[in-house]
Amino acid sequence: MKKHEVVHYYKAGGFNHLVNVSVDDNLFAAVTFTSGEIETILKKYPLAQNNLFALVDGVEIKLKA
């Protein structure tokens, strides 16, 4: 199985700001989060509210947060 490169970030002020999200090798887990995980992310990165993205192998995906 191919390992995918995933980067999480939010956009603000014309820049992409990296979000430190630890995920396992499961691609599905890298682009979906539980409500508890979202809550934790938004406490640390409040500007990611409705502004969270994942770059998966060069393809940008907007995540619900």
Q: Mind sketching the topology for me?
A:
Blueprint: E1 6-12, E2 15-18, H1 27-31, H2 35-44, E3 52-56, E4 59-63
Antiparallel strand pairs: 1-2, 1-3, 3-4
Sheet with most strands: strand arrangement = 2-1-3-4
Q: Overall 3D geometry? A: globular
Outline the biggest β-sheet. Answer: 4 strands, antiparallel
Tally of separate helices: 2
Uncertain segments: none
H/E series, N to C?
EEHHEE
Beta-strand content estimate: 25-35%
Average of pLDDT? 88
Helix/strand-derived category reads: alpha+beta
What oligomeric state do the depicted chains represent? Answer: single chain
- Considering DSSP H and I runs of 4 or more, what fraction of the residues is helical? 10-25%
Report the span from N to C terminus: 28 Å
Written description of the protein model:
Helix content is 23%, strand content 32%. It is of the alpha+beta class and 65 residues long. Strand 3 (52-56) and strand 4 (59-63) form a beta hairpin. The longest helix has 10 residues, at 35-44.
